[in-house]
């Protein structure tokens, strides 16, 4: 992952509404949620939800799939895992330290 991609994803998640949407989709699992159910869950108007979903899709954190007349939104777990990995893969690389679980990384 490149730093620009990570920065874009973190910027997208830095908005409280988008973070709430994303966490809701992560909780929904692989099946995702329809836009209508997501709107009900989050409690925001459709145009606002659409705006925030667009940003999450653009950064690769969310995918959308049309099933007949229903638009299904899903957290894109490979992107989420890549971002988390990017954030932690060099933890304590420059100094020996103890990770939160008590295991030495040196």
TrEMBL record:
Keyword Translocase: no
InterPro entries the UniProt entry points to: ArsR-like_HTH, HTH_ArsR_DNA-bd_dom, Metal_resp_trans_reg, WH-like_DNA-bd_sf, WH_DNA-bd_sf
SUPFAM superfamilies (UniProt xref): Winged helix' DNA-binding domain (SSF46785)
Positions of the HTH arsR-type domain: 1-95
Source organism superkingdom: Bacteria
Molecular-function annotations in GO: DNA binding; DNA-binding transcription factor activity
Matching PROSITE patterns: HTH_ARSR_2 (PS50987)
Alphabetical UniProt keywords: DNA-binding, Transcription, Transcription regulation
UniProt KW DNA-binding keyword: yes
Identification of the protein by name: Transcriptional regulator
């Amino acid at each position: 992952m490149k730093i620009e991609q990570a920065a874009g994803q973190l910027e997208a998640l830095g908005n409280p509404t988008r973070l709430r949407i994303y966490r809701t989709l992560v909780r929904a699992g692989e099946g995702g949620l329809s836009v209508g159910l997501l709107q009900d869950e989050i409690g925001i108007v459709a145009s606002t939800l659409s705006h925030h979903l667009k940003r999450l899709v653009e950064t690769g954190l969310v995918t959308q799939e049309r099933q007949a007349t229903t638009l299904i939104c899903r957290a894109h777990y490979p992107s989420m895992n890549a971002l988390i990995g990017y954030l932690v893969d060099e933890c304590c690389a420059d100094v020996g330290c103890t990770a939160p679980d008590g295991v030495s990384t040196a």
